[in-house]
Fold this sequence. Notes:
By secondary structure, the protein is an alpha/beta fold. The chain folds into 2 domains: 2-174, no CATH class; 179-337, no CATH class. It has helices at 2-22, 40-43, 86-103, 107-113, 139-144, 176-194, 226-229, 270-282, 305-319, 324-331, 347-351, and strands at residues 26-27, 35-36, 51-52, 56-61, 69-79, 120-130, 171-174, 203-205, 233-238, 241-245, 250-255, 258-263, 291-296, 334-337. The strands form 4 sheets. Strands 1-4-5-6-7 form a 5-stranded mixed sheet. A 5-stranded mixed sheet has the order 8-9-12-13-14, covered by helices on one side. A hairpin with a 7-residue loop joins strand 4 (56-61) and strand 5 (69-79). The termini are close together. Mean pLDDT is 88; it is low at 347-354.
Amino acid sequence: MAGETSAIAKMAQYVSDELLTWFRWERVKLPDQNFDCVKLANHAPKKKSHTHPVDAVFWYRDPYLNNRVAYFNTDLKSYARGSIDASQIFAALKSLAQTIDCARVSEEWQGRYHLLEESYEVRGMLFVYNHDAEYDKDFYDLLTAPVKRRGASEEKPFRLETIPIADGQSLHIFEPRLINYLTTIVADAYRLHALGTFPEKRYEFFYPDLKLHKTSGAEYDRPATVESLAGPYLIIRHDRVVKFNEDTGTSEERYPEGFVIYYNRPGDSAEEFMYFLDILSGYQVLDGRHKIRIRIAHHASALDVLSNFKRAISMYAQEWNFDRHKTERLQSIEVEAIEVSKYSFTRTNIGWER
């Protein structure tokens, strides 16, 4: 049984590594190690000693924050559908909040994980992986639903404001649906690459220059930030795709440069897509002649999502009084609703390492 529990725990580690590497996150190459609490009076006042857990530490250089390094002290959880409950999640969030509160002042943590000569911040990340791929509820409903706690006479919801997050610190939750969305992006990108329409390495996560922030770092090194991964869309710009032709012995262009945009909203109405087109226009994504492909990757996309997008193009072109050329440009956008992918493991997989 211990071997099975250990194998289950390793699933979240495997999935997080597999996904976040594609989004150009790095992981500090150290095994799971706890570190001593340096705020014992606040975190464990009844104990003489206490340690905080570290399952993994991921990091990236933020493209907008002058190369500030964001470290994600990560708690990796792997649950079957019936094991995901509010009590466990809130306990994990409380522990994680205390962990990052200690980590930012702990010399032990900094000496072990902060290996770069750059400014940095420590964030918390709870990675909740559903290893049987059967969890189909809204995770955030779980956090607000009434529950009966030990010793209580009635059911009451947990209060998010009671999680002890220190000023200036952040906790991020990668819950099952978000993990499925990211899995879908990676699986679809590999599929497009196999078809010769997406490059292996020469792709970048698109960040428009903002009034107060300009991007930094090499284009093809920039990561997808945690905010962009959890957002309603992810814009990826890619270079032209060049493949080796085994028949002719030469390299040839298979697909032109362009944008692949993953859309994580249901597409319930034409107005929703009009707003999205306006965002893309503001980012100047709609300018030029490059290919634009929008991939609807929502877990519950509307049945008439493609029709809604076509109506949005007509309405958008009419509202802005576009000429024939600009309207044809909009009509050239390729839209496809793609199947949501999930990582799942069978009981045989779980027991393999025993």
